[in-house]
Specification:
The chain is α/β, with parallel strands linked by helices and 288 residues long. It has a single domain, classed as Alpha/Beta hydrolase fold, catalytic domain (Rossmann fold), CATH 3.40.50.1820. The strands form two sheets. Strands 3-4-6-5-7-8-9-10 form an eight-stranded mixed sheet, sandwiched between helices. Strands 1-2 form a two-stranded antiparallel ribbon. The chain is globular and about 60 Å long.
């Protein structure tokens, strides 16, 4: 049995266990079906539209419009290990946030193996630049764009925070006014070393490009971080390190360990109007 250390104090078997989120629950598809059912309910009850933000087949996003114009805009980036899910499972928070006064946006983006993780980050940046240019026509305030992501979507949020918006898009340097980072990773090196790299094919340069903890942020904004009580130890460690790193940059942070939650249902607490995490998100947007 090979017990050589691969990452920190983990041998290969333990590293693979730490980064196998699906292995922490009996059936992760229970939660995926819940995301989809809640998204269908939102589409049945709210005013929403689909838009193309580019020419690619995955360059699409759904806008769930706030009840009043000039609303803050909350962009949610789904998880799925950078290789699963879509905007059809990403509108589950729309009913709660629209009722509270926000416009919620759920983008699609290309997935592995059709792309790679840094290219996915670049695609999401293009989506955000499109929103900044166009969301006023849908009642959203382009000067109040906030981003939230879960799991691999939290990594995409972090890639937005390293974008030089003025240089790359001639947009305001502070285009992103706040971020919510849920059950995410600030350093992709252990992913590269784990079983997951058989499909992600990360190399050291890609890890450096797509890892917040290895980059100098180009954005200063508040960040809310959260993970579930029942997530693995290294996911929790990464969440705490991202919070510490973001605070060292001079940014305000809040942290939530969500009692009784796992990797897949922690994000549902974010969409629950009764939760402290939901209220903190509203406060960041100056709502409620």
């Amino acid at each position: 049995m090979n017990t050589a250390k691969v990452w920190r104090d983990f041998d290969q078997a333990e590293l693979d266990r730490q980064y196998n989120s699906r292995g922490t629950v009996p059936d992760h598809m229970v939660y995926v079906r819940d995301y989809a059912e809640r998204t269908r309910a939102a589409k049945a009850s709210l005013a929403w539209s689909e838009f193309a933000y580019g020419e690619g087949p995955a360059d699409r996003l759904d806008v769930y419009r706030a009840l009043k114009p000039g609303a803050p805009v909350l962009v949610f980036l789904h998880g799925g290990d950078w290789r699963a899910l879509s905007k059809e499972e990403s509108g589950f928070g729309a009913q709660a946030f629209v009722a509270a006064g926000a416009t919620l946006v759920a983008p699609d983006f290309s997935l592995v193996p059709d792309t790679n993780i840094p290219a996915m980050g670049a695609q999401v940046r293009r989506a955000l630049a499109w929103l900044w240019q166009n969301i006023a026509g849908e009642g959203g305030d382009p000067a109040r764009i906030f981003v939230a992501g879960h799991s691999s979507g939290a990594n995409l949020v972090s890639q937005l925070l390293t974008c030089d918006w003025a240089r790359d898009f001639r947009a305001p340097a502070d285009l992103v006014k706040g971020a919510v980072f849920m059950s995410g990773l600030g350093d992709l090196e252990p992913v590269r070393l784990s079983f997951r790299n058989q499909w992600h094919k990360l190399d050291e340069a890609m890890v450096a490009e797509a890892s917040l903890l290895r980059r100098k942020p180009a954005t200063a904004c508040p960040m809310i971080l959260a993970y579930g009580e029942h997530e693995t130890d290294d996911y929790k460690r990464q969440g705490r390190e991202v919070e510490a790193y973001w605070a060292v940059q001079g940014n305000r942070t809040q942290f939530f360990e969500l009692a009784g939650r796992n990797h897949f249902d922690a994000v549902l607490e974010w969409a629950d109007p009764a939760s402290a995490l939901f209220r903190a998100t509203l406060a960041m947007m100056e709502l409620g």
